Description:
Radius of gyration: 30 Å
Number of strands: 0
Structural class: mainly alpha
Shape: elongated
Low-confidence stretches: 18-34, 37-41
Helix content: 40-55%
Strand content: under 5%
Amino acid sequence: xxxxxxxxxxxxxxxxxxxxxxxxxxxxxxxxxxxxxxxxxxxxxxxxxxxxxxxxxxxxxxxxxxxxxxxxxxxxxxxxxxxxxxxxxxxxxxxxxxxxxxxxxxxxxxxxxxxxxxxxxxxxxxxxxxxxxxxxxxxxxxxxxxxxxxxxxxxxxxxxxxxxxxxxxxxxxxxxxxxxxxxxxxxxxxxxxxxxxxx
Length: 199
């Protein structure tokens, strides 16, 4: 269905006049940028001053799709504690390396958040894995990985590592107690290099 040209012009004029009226109004609460807020108490003398874009004045993370989390402390605590609780309630053994690693990571991040409950930048510096919003996002992603790990029971699929480990990497293979097979491989490699034409 097409509109007559006169109707289109009238519609455009109506939109333009509405736009002009909106431009002269104060921004609504929904249009204002989201700021972190921690307390309505007056700032202590030792607190850093309010700086737009930093700390309490943070309005963006700098990443598309990753919004500022004004309630970062509670959300971070909730997400990391959920990981710990889910592992605790599961039948994954405490000796599973995945459980050990995730538990250490969660406890470290929670400890840093508890040590700096009003300073997300201090938490970010201590953890050194990005912004608190990124940490929250990582915890949510880890929950997806944990669900898969528990569903497949991956700890049962992990066997003992079969690794050749040379405790002394500086050991000379050409010494009297050196490995004959290694000596032969090195000799053959050197001979092959010498046979190659030079550029």
